[in-house]
Amino acid sequence: MCHITQRSSTSSFPKIYSIFWRFHHTSTSHWCSCSKTISDEKYQDPFQLGKKDLKNLYEDIKKELLVSAAELKEMCDYYFDGKGKAFRPMIVVLMARACNIHYNNSKEVQASQRSVAIIAEMIHTASLVHDDVIDDANSRRGKRTLNQIWGERKAVLAGDFILSAASVALARIGNTTIISVLTQVIEDLVRGEFLQLGSKENENERFAHYLEKTFKKTASLIANSCKAVSILGCPDPKVHEIAYQYGKNVGIAFQLIDDVLDFTSCADHLGKPTAADLKLGLATGPVLFACRQFPEMNAMIMRRFSKPGDVERARKYVLQSDGVQQTTYLAQRYCHAATREIRKLRPSPEREALVHLTEMVLMRDK
């Protein structure tokens, strides 16, 4: 069983931490630092509540990917094998139900709302295929990547095809507002990838740069998908903002925990190599926080851990620092923000499931 030992921090959270948080949150509300949010309502399992609406999800995605070329079909079906967590589609259908109940007490998910869940999973998967090519990754979800099996050129084309099929499904919804909201996701994914290719020398700018990249590459998809189903289910702009803010905060927290797991989880358990971000030259939350305690990391960050021994030394510094703890605490704060937003909706089992989902994000180990 993998575990780590860390040097406990006795210092208060750094000034830069507050700057980092205020980049997306201007509220001066006090936040609890407890390990997870405890819901007073009856426990609701998000996966069980969303199960009905997600039935045959991957079969329906494969119908969107109908293609005559056998090899392209095999490549497109590769990650839609039904073994994924379907985390994003689950959030989308739960948000759809919560907004529908809030507006007119309707407990059914509209066909167009379910289509958004399908499109979100397709966009997400296409982005993974392209990410693996950019990163030259060799494993994903516990198996070899498309680019390792079929080569980079074909993998890029497969990702493009999945994205084009998602665009066709989006157009079929027939709502220009929804098209605008979800195409923003694709723009953000590209901009986020470009942000990841760059780095900042100034510590304050470095945190802001990291958070913006995190939003665009991960949280935008969840935020805008939640907003899209809220628009389809309720005409109130305030509800659209609630859905968007919930998705944004959960999405950022999800990626922060992902960045923590890159240092604390076993490769076999995670389904991909650990310390992968360092090997790619990326300074994520745990590294940026650790840099305050070990300033010598600054030079390594700027040269993107390219010298022999940089990756191993940086990982050692992170595990000796409170970088993992502070990144986890920051994720807790984003989850608290998500909970605060979703509680503005009328009480429902789906609303409570979305509250519980923030706890699951914090407690996940892969």
Structure commentary:
This protein is an all-alpha fold and about 375 residues long. Helix 8 runs antiparallel to helix 9 and helix 11 packs antiparallel against helix 17. A two-stranded antiparallel sheet has the order 1-2. The N terminus is likely disordered. Helix content is about 70%, strand content about 0%.
Write a concise synopsis of the structure shown.
With 366 residues, this protein is mostly helical.
List keywords for this structure.
single chain; 366 residues; mainly alpha; Farnesyl Diphosphate Synthase; two-stranded antiparallel sheet; 18 helices; 69% helix; 1% strand; mitochondrion; metal ion binding; Polyprenyl_synt
Task: Give the SSE map.
Layout: H1 15-22, H2 46-54, H3 57-64, H4 70-77, H5 87-104, H6 111-135, E1 139-140, E2 143-144, H7 146-150, H8 152-173, H9 176-197, H10 203-233, H11 237-264, H12 267-270, H13 276-279, H14 285-293, H15 297-302, H16 310-320, H17 323-342, H18 349-363
Antiparallel strand pairs: 1-2
Helix pairs in contact: 1-10, 2-5, 5-6, 5-10, 5-18, 6-8, 6-10, 8-9, 9-10, 10-11, 11-17, 14-16, 14-17, 17-18
Shape: globular
What order do the helices and strands follow?
A: HHHHHHEEHHHHHHHHHHHH
- Uncertain parts: 1-17, 26-41
CATH topology: Farnesyl Diphosphate Synthase
Classify the helix fraction into a percent range. 55-70%
CATH class: Mainly Alpha
The largest β sheet comes out as: 2 strands, antiparallel
**Helices and strands: which structural class?**
mainly alpha
- Taking all Cα atoms into account, the compactness measure Rg is 20 Å
Number of helices: 18
Instruction: Tell me the count of domains.
Output: 1
Q: Work out the oligomeric state of the chains in this entry.
A: single chain
Q: How many E-type strands?
A: 2
Mean pLDDT: 86
Sheet-strand content, in percent, reads under 5%
What is the topology, as strand order, of the major beta sheet? 1-2
**What would CATH call the architecture?**
Orthogonal Bundle
What is the straight-line distance between the termini? 14 Å
CATH superfamily: Farnesyl Diphosphate Synthase
Catalytic activity: 7 isopentenyl diphosphate + (2E,6E)-farnesyl diphosphate = all-trans-decaprenyl diphosphate + 7 diphosphate; 6 isopentenyl diphosphate + (2E,6E)-farnesyl diphosphate = all-trans-nonaprenyl diphosphate + 6 diphosphate
Cofactor: Mg(2+)
InterPro entries: Isoprenoid_synthase_dom_sf, Polyprenyl_synt, Polyprenyl_synt_CS
Organism: Zosterops lateralis melanops
